[in-house]
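Re: duplicated header lines in exported structure tokens

Our pipeline writes sequence and tokens for each protein into one text file. With two proteins the header for the second block appears twice in some exports. Here is an export where it did not happen, for reference. First protein block:
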Amino acid sequence: MGLILSVAWGTAGWIWRTPWADAELLLFKIRIPRTLMALLGGGALALAGYWMQLLFRNPLASPSILGVTNGASMGVALVTMGFSMWGFPVWPEMVILSSLMGAVLILFLLFVVRWRVQSLTGLLIFGVMTGHLAGAVESILQRWTDKGNLSGLVYWSMGSFDHGTLQHLGYLVGVMVISIFWMSGKAKALDAWSLGDDTARSMGISTQKISVLLMVFAGVLTAVVTAMAGPIAFVGLASSHIARLWWKGRSYQQLWLPVMITGMGIALYCDLMSRCLGIPINAMTSLIGAPWVMLWILKNKNHVF
């Protein structure tokens, strides 16, 4: 139902009330790419959140916890300021590329640090501090850029699924397929990992390699979605918990697909509501997600950490 509504309805009205020439443009240039971006982006963020929660064995871990989202924002701010100083226009493709480069830079730094820091808690703290540093650099760059480019940066930070083209969606599909197949091949190792380091080692599993795989693939999916749609909150955090409410399976092989489907549904309906109410998608996901997390913490107050 949500899929049909997303394609058939928008700010321009119902598709069947639009002349065919305009309807064709709306469908293939705006609504279908936006709907696909919401589905794929929501699914990718849900998987990234699930993998982050496996990595830290913490139900409140989210895709942005390692600072990847902040790195993407820093990359956009850097390019926006640089282009404004040189008098060049900021193209949408440049925003996506700079966002991806900033996120990958943070991810590469964390990848190097993971081989030096054995503690996952240490990696978590390092990632959070890296995110704060990237956020500080972004704030400085925002202060130096002109008002015209600053408004574009602020708009990007609100998040939107209408930036992606069919070509960009192809890139996202490719990254998702590689990530899903690679992680599915490690399903037994991931189930053992979720039981603790000692159990995983007793089964001959390298905890270092599994943690790196979880970090890299979760970070890459977050980076790609953030580059195309901006920072989208709470989809990755809530999807795995909601999936467990309607799906009985608990092993990785049984759960990853319901988690991805749940993320797709959350993103799609939040996008519909944001269009209906005229508010940014990031605000909508936060309005829905924040109260849910608060209730979850109150209900599970003895088992959050």
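Second protein block, exported in the same file:
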Amino acid sequence: MIIDGRLIAQEILDDLKRRVEELRTNNVRPHLHIITLTTDSASESYVGQKKKKGEEIGAKITVENLDPRTSTESLLEKIKLLNEDQSVHGIIVQRPFSPQIDEEKIANSINPEKDVDGFHPDSKFDPPISESVLRILEEVYAQTYEVEASLTSQVDFDEWLKSQKITVIGRGVTAGGPIIKTFEKTGSDLVVVTSKTEDREKILKSSDIIICAVGKTDTVKGSNLKKGVILIGVGMFKGEDGKFHSDYEENDIKDIASFYTPTPRGVGPVNVAMLLSNLIKATGNKTS
């Protein structure tokens, strides 16, 4: 069964729009400032969606495109100004960074109260990508028990999640890493798979939930999966056909997975919605 991320995201965005309207009655408009230094097509697509959906809920979204050759020092000065700007509630430096940029310095320079991406070690916010995966799994859980309505005793979502064998493929800074940290906090039965992992196929075959966060073709194939697996595709890349693809091909897995996210219309829309949720929280924190 396809998990339509657009429907989940719209539910979140509808609520955020109401909250923005309340803030604007007090002459406060949430403002997200996004800095880009990349020409990565997937990132450009995400930035476009952040701006579009942010403006739809009534927020102000500023996108500042800097030269990819910008130095770490120049970027730090820009962030310092944004940290001090009381009209800015959220700051993002869009990844991937240019090679000359010191990622750790940049992440640590953003005010934790404005770090809506959740990369600062003291950030006030959970990473949107992690929250979006959890939100999607909540939907899977709800649909599972709706189908199995005859069950007399239902476990709650947290108990259900702990009962699942979860595998995360990839541990990158922008996706796999934050997701791993979030699921470790839940006490889930978690396995991390990388390119160096032994018994990879055996691990995948025994997994109840697989979260793919690589962004390469055929990272997961139907032959690697057990029947009924829940498949969440976070990784994304642009193929030779000019379209965005997931770490797996839908036609290859659709008859094997019980639930799966497509690309597009999967994790991406929910990720944007959860980011904007963090922005509204950041704005509310400043006005309370």
